[in-house]
Design brief:
This protein has about 70 residues and is mainly α. The protein is about 80% helix and about 0% strand.
């Protein structure tokens, strides 16, 4: 019978595995998240201007219906 040669990884081994996983998956994931956040957000003044314009349009529609 063969002895069991592989044990459960301990603290240092788990840290190395975690570091490798972060290097492999963390950096690309971070880049994807940053790109999505950059594309989705405009400047606050642009967003405020769009909201004010939409409010004016809706108020004009309400005045037409009255």
């Amino acid at each position: 019978m063969l002895p069991l040669q592989f044990a459960i990884p301990g603290g240092p081994e788990l840290l190395v595995i975690l570091l490798i996983a972060i290097l492999l998956f963390g950096a690309p994931l971070l880049l994807v998240v940053l790109l999505i956040a950059k594309q989705g957000s405009g400047t606050d003044s642009d967003r405020v201007a769009e909201l004010e314009q939409r409010v004016e349009e809706l108020e004009a529609e309400l005045e037409e219906e009255r």
